[in-house]
Design the sequence.
């Protein structure tokens, strides 16, 4: 099992860790600040620093899978190519310092929180999502047209309002009793521990968005900065795609 430190503190940039195992798919640590691809959010990149000063470049982070292809509770740190000599010297039990590419991660956090604001502005089921450092997109299950300028203005208003973001949790039973909290049609929140992690934007009295989510987020909407709707596409008769980008 990998202790996923980013779940409780998305602002952690590094941590000391121990190598649990190494195989062709990647390096498993006992704890990490690296977020693995999931929920539409791209996996982190960064470096694993060895005690002697050498560093292993990590190109991606993924969830490990079992023989049947099901995700496990381990996280794989995928090395960049052409590091075979350094990787061959690693052994289980070795200690490393895991450091994420913070500038890239912070962009992912800002975009991810912006997509939750978009869910508030477009209260329709989501049937597709992609969050990268350069853009984010949500596919909404709907037939009505959307206005690019109106959505951009709405995002700017919510960002500038400085709404706080709170990480919480609800029980599986509470989620079962409130299935509408799950906005995504294609991705279900992870279960198995009896509780499901939640993200609330705004206060309970003035909630802007509240939904299960395992991704990384900023602490306040003002930290997002200026994002704009760069494109709205009709992907099918029942799908409208909204793409977000950074203001130029």
Sequence:
């Amino acid at each position: 099992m990998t202790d996923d430190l980013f779940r409780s503190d998305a602002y952690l940039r590094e941590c000391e860790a121990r190598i649990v195992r190494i195989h062709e798919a990647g390096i498993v640590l006992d704890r990490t600040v690296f977020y693995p691809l999931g929920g539409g959010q791209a996996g982190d990149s960064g470096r694993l620093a060895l005690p002697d000063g050498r560093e292993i470049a990590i190109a991606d982070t993924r969830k490990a899978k079992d023989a049947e292809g099901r995700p496990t509770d381990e996280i794989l740190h995928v090395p960049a190519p052409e590091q075979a000599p350094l990787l061959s010297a690693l052994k289980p039990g070795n200690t490393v310092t895991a450091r994420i590419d913070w500038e890239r991660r912070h962009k992912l956090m800002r975009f991810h929180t912006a997509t939750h604001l978009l869910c508030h502005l477009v209260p329709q089921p989501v049937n597709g999502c992609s969050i990268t450092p350069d853009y984010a997109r949500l596919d909404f299950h709907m037939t009505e047209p959307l206005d690019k300028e109106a959505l951009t203005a709405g995002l700017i208003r919510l960002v500038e309002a400085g709404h706080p973001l709170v990480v919480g949790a609800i029980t599986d039973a509470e989620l079962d009793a409130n299935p509408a909290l799950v906005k995504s049609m294609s991705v279900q929140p992870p279960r198995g521990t009896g509780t499901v992690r939640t993200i609330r934007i705004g206060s309970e009295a003035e909630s802007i968005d509240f939904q299960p989510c395992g991704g990384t987020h900023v602490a306040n909407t003002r930290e997002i900065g200026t994002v704009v709707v760069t494109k709205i596409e009709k992907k099918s008769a029942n799908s409208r795609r909204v793409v977000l980008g950074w203001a130029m």
Q: What stands out?
A: The chain has a mean pLDDT of 93.
